[in-house]
Amino acid sequence: EMAQLKDHYYSSAPQFNYVNISAFHKRLKSRLPQYKALFTKAGEKYDIPWTLLAAQSYQESHWDRLAKSPTGVRGMMMLTLPTAKEMGVKHRLNATQSIYGGAKYYAQLLERVSPDVKGVERYKFAYAAYNVGMGHLIDARALARKLGKDPNRWKDLKTVLPLLSQRKYYKDLKYGYARGQEPVDYVEAIYEYHAILENKFNKGLENEK
User: Fold this and answer.
1) Nearest in space to 53 (alpha carbons), one of 74, 36, 69
2) Is 208 considered catalytic here?
3) What is the dihedral angle through the alpha carbons of 168, 169, 171, 172, rounded to the nearest 10 degrees?
4) Is 0.85 surpassed by the pTM of this model?
5) C-alpha–C-alpha distance, residues 181 and 158, integer Å
6) pLDDT per residue over 161-202, tens digit each?
7) Active-site hit among 60, 121, 188, 198
């Protein structure tokens, strides 16, 4: 249990530096106020802490409603075109539609996470699935069992996900190759930003289930 707590609160610290955190704090003042109410309302609608949605959106787009990537994802929550259509989002560069669409999609992923995964772990597993796909998350859990690790704990799963890029591990898995380090970095970054938001707005008290 101590190892799990240490991982939750401190594991992401090494990948952040002064430049990253300084830029985040500047955007807390310059950009977040425009969207805080949207994150709050979307969080209430889909039963997700607004600080988590805001942290995810910062990781995705730096709270830039016009954000685009070379791979075709766009908007505050960087939705793919198929996901946007599935979530009822007509204009991905519309901040309101993007935030609500991203929250809806994330809520669906939360529902799909195995009931064996409990508490805050569910949020982390769902974010990994948001990044890499639910199929690869399922593969990673299966591989964790095979390697004698706990498939229901993030501290174990994050050591397994990177193995999905190695043929000797992914060749026997249903969904095959994945850039497994990316969802690990993604989740860790979200929780670093989330900790800062919680400290600023909720005095360090996390609104997590």
Assistant:
1) 36
2) no
3) 130
4) yes
5) 8
6) 999 999 999 999 999 999 999 999 999 999 999 999 999 998
7) 60
